[in-house]
Amino acid sequence: MGKKWIVRRAFVKSLPVMAAYVILGMGFGILMDDRGYAPGWSILCSVLIYAGAMQYVTADLLATAASPLSAALMTLMVNARHLFYGISMVGKYREMGKAKPYLIFGLTDETYSLLCDGRDWPGDARDARLYCFLVTLFDQCYWVLGTALGAVLGTVLAFNSTGIDFSMTALFVTVFVEQWLTAKERRAALVGVGSAAACLLIFGPERFLIPAMALIVLLLSATYPKGGKGRA
Asked: At which of 108, 129, 164 does a domain end?
C-alpha cells in the first residue's frame, strides 16, 4: 500500500471527528477568550494538553488560580476513563515504535472509537503504524484548528459563553448513542450507565466518577467470559 493511499484512508476515517472537533475546539477558544486569555494560550493548551473535556475545566482552573493539587485531582477525576482506554490498547500499540508516545498522548475518546477495533488498519505493520499516527494527528489538528478559530472570533465578536462547556457532554452522548445503535452486544454499555447512575446517587456529582469507573471494571471483570473471547 502506498503512503498516499494510507493518508487518504486515515483522512476519510477521521472526517466524522473533524465535524465535531472543529466546533468543540471553537467552543474552547471562545471560552478561553471569555476568561481573558489571548489566542496563543488557547492554541498552546490544545497542542500540549489536548484533553477535550478537561480543557474546558482547565479554563476555569486557570481563571480561579486553582492549586496544582486541585488541578491534578480534577484531571484524574475527569480523565480517569483514559486508564481503561489505555489498557485495552496495550496489545494494539505494542509494535508502534517511535510513534507510540504520541499515540498514547493523542488517545482521546473519539480517536479511541476510530482505532479500538483495528478492523480498518492496514495489514502491514509499518502501514498500520502510519495509519494510526495519521488518524491521531488529523484529529488533533481539527481540535487545534477549531481552537484557533474560536480564540480569534472571540476577540472580534461578542459571545455569550453560557452553556458552551456543555458541548463536550453532548458529544459524549452522541458517541454513546452511535455505539449503542451499532453494537451487537450492549452489556458493557448497560453496566456503564447503571454504575454511573448508582454512584451519582450515592456519592454526588462531584465525587462519583472514580467510584463509577472502579465499579464498572469490577462488574465487567466478574461477568466477562473466561478465556477473554466474549464480546463486551
From this structure: 164
Q: Judge whether 169 lies within some domain.
A: no
Same domain, 210 and 155: no
pLDDT of residue 232: 40
C-alpha 195/C-alpha 189 separation (Å) is: 10
Per-residue pLDDT reduced to its tens digit, 14-52 = 998 998 899 889 989 988 888 888 999 999 999 999 988
Rg, C-alpha atoms of the chain: 19
**Residue 112 and residue 191 share a domain:** no
Integer distance in angstroms from the first to the last C-alpha of the chain? 32
pTM of the model: 0.72
* Residue span of the structural domain in which 198 resides: 183-232
Q: Where are the alpha helices (DSSP H) in 90-186?
A: 100-105, 109-115, 125-156, 167-182
pLDDT in tens, 177-226: 766 776 677 777 788 888 889 989 998 887 787 788 778 878 877 776 55
Whether 96 has a pLDDT exceeding 80, the answer reads yes
Q: How many domains does the chain have?
A: 2
> Does any domain span residue 172?
no
